[in-house]
Amino acid sequence: xxxxxxxxxxxxxxxxxxxxxxxxxxxxxxxxxxxxxxxxxxxxxxxxxxxxxxxxxxxxxxxxxxxxxxxxxxxxxxxxxxxxxxxxxxxxxxxxxxxxxxxxxxxxxxxxxxxxxxxxxxxxxxxxxxxxxxxxxxxxxxxxxxxxxxxxxxxxxxxxxxxxxxxxxxxxxxxxxxxxxxxxxxxxxxxxxxxxxxxxxxxxxxxxxxxxxxxxxxxxxxxxxxxxxxxxxxxxxxxxxxxxxxxxxxxxxxxxxxxxxxxxxxxxxxxxxxxxxxxxxxxxxxxxxxxxxxxxxxxxxxx
Length: 303
What we know:
The structure is a single chain. By secondary structure, the chain is of the alpha/beta class. It has helices at about 15-20, 30-40, 65-70, 85-95, 110-115, 120-125, 130-135, 160-170, 190-200, 220-225, 255-265, 275-285, and strands at about 10-15, 45-55, 80-85, 100-105, 140-145, 150, 155, 175-180, 205-210, 230-235. Strands 1-2-3-4-5-8-9-10 form an eight-stranded parallel beta barrel, surrounded by eight helices. Strands 6-7 form a two-stranded antiparallel sheet. Helix 9 (about 190-200) links the parallel strand 8 and strand 9 (about 205-210). Helix 2 (about 30-40) packs across helix 3 (about 65-70). It is globular and about 40 Å long.
């Protein structure tokens, strides 16, 4: 793949306020979450996952998402999205003026059974009401496929297994789908092959790549995604977070690391790099994390 095949611009969704903070031991206050969300928008983020509308006992760090959604300063042109797992969560998201709701299903039967006591197919059937509600209220619904590249109990997830979930999403009218490397098991060759095939088979779908850096391959996997034609990616300031329902799946790829790589490659993101570094440092300060991204030198010294 030659450089001219790479996109000149990509869209990064900042998932730190949700996927980043949900797996951290430190519980931030509403004002601290609002501070981070508004700061990353000021840094250039056009899409932010502000939290999740799930049961507070399941994810205590997301218990105040309704209040956070009410307090943030809304900026025109910015997509404020959130995760929901059922109709009640979608209704809460709508009441909180979220502009896009994301539902997710684990393509791994083992992981799905462990966390929802249901098969992937059964989980998606529960989204029928969610899809109908979103259509009725005129809000966007997107879908995510977690453990999309592998799960420890089963190893590599076959592409045809993923296809079943994709077709189920399409039947619901969902045409924006995130392929999530929840456990950080993906490798660049697999990412290139999977995303190339999925884009070829489903050209009408807007594909997003969501990577974790659990095994240190997130940036390489993003490059493979770029070469496969993917232009939408998720990242978390300071590399915070992971999945509380997948032990060991720590560490989303850091937004500042992705920005650093992309700007060196001449790919536009719309983010201000130094402002993003400031947000990352603040996120580390609030959560007590210090080693969650690769960039540890002042932005003024990064050429």
